[in-house]
């Protein structure tokens, strides 16, 4: 067996160099590129280059929120666990995934809706501003509904649900809001992708 | 906005139907297909159809271990959090991710190796049999080394590290062992994919 690179930072740097070489032509700014490359790093899938939509001034808004020690809502425990806890701590931010909460579980069962939908309702009622969706199209639909009704005030959204039923549509719908956002269009996305976007944003501040 | 499907089980069933229709010709058995479809369900990426390698009698071995209440080793907290905890509980299994352990952290720092490598050393010394890798090529290299030295006795391995440095090679190397295994060849894979394979195996028993 050949010897192999063992330093995590060295591995990451080499990976980003390879991605830069292989991804070819693009129109991303240097800051946007950091997000796109990190998603490709997380998925080994260059198609994300064509799927990531970064709305104007959204990175700036996300950074402003992260610097203010915002609470980050995630739709799954998996997305929450993919977010770098050390970076969160350094920024005095916090990550909350409501789907595991007892009250959310009960409400979902009573109403016959997904736990993700009940969770987003709860988060909105508690004034969450920074939303991260990697899994649940239904949660994204719900956030749009609540925002249009004036019952939610999102200031930044990562919309990256994955899947075959409702995922692509959920991203089309959420983009109709004027909120600053980053989305992954089409069927692709996922908890890992959503977490990678959060990490990329934090590293823009911290590194 | 159109009405949308809200029942999680209904969403999953419809997704699997779409995947079945779109994935085209294949040589998978019915049981293998359950694993492949779940990975595509998790990634929205049909390329996995051509990347997943299921060694003969490996599903049977995995099922035997799961039925015996095995401890499942994962290389990341993210993979651990993607594994269905309810199914784990029903099977009397447990999931352990060693990378967060204090002793593992110390050892990695002292030796200048990745925490993933130190974690796999610890797991092997504690007799773990069922290994799940979604992230760390270095951990997979290390497991192969330890197995060849007689210091590890894996009975089933999921080898799905993702990435640009070492990931593809790590899967080529691990396949040289005779151990029952499921791997994702090439650069792709990831924590979500690794967890999806574990879930698919558990659902074969439980559903």
Short description:
With 207 residues, chain A is α/β, with parallel strands linked by helices. Chain A has eleven helices and six strands.
Q: Give me the count of strands of chain A.
A: 6
Q: Percent of residues of chain A in beta strands?
A: 5-15%
Total helices of chain A: the number is: 11
Please outline the major beta sheet of chain A. Answer: 6 strands, mixed
The oligomeric status of these chains comes to homodimer
Give the overall form of chain A. globular
Largest interface: A-B, 48 and 48 residues
- Report the span from N to C terminus of chain A: 34 Å
CATH class of chain A: Alpha Beta
Spatial strand sequence of the major β-sheet of chain A? 1-6-5-4-2-3
The radius of gyration of chain A is 17 Å
Write down the secondary-structure element order of chain A: HHHEHEHHEHHEHEHEH
Please name the fourth-level CATH homologous superfamily of chain A.
Cobalamin biosynthesis CobH/CbiC, precorrin-8X methylmutase
Q: Tell me the count of domains of chain A.
A: 1
The CATH architecture category of chain A equals 3-Layer(aba) Sandwich
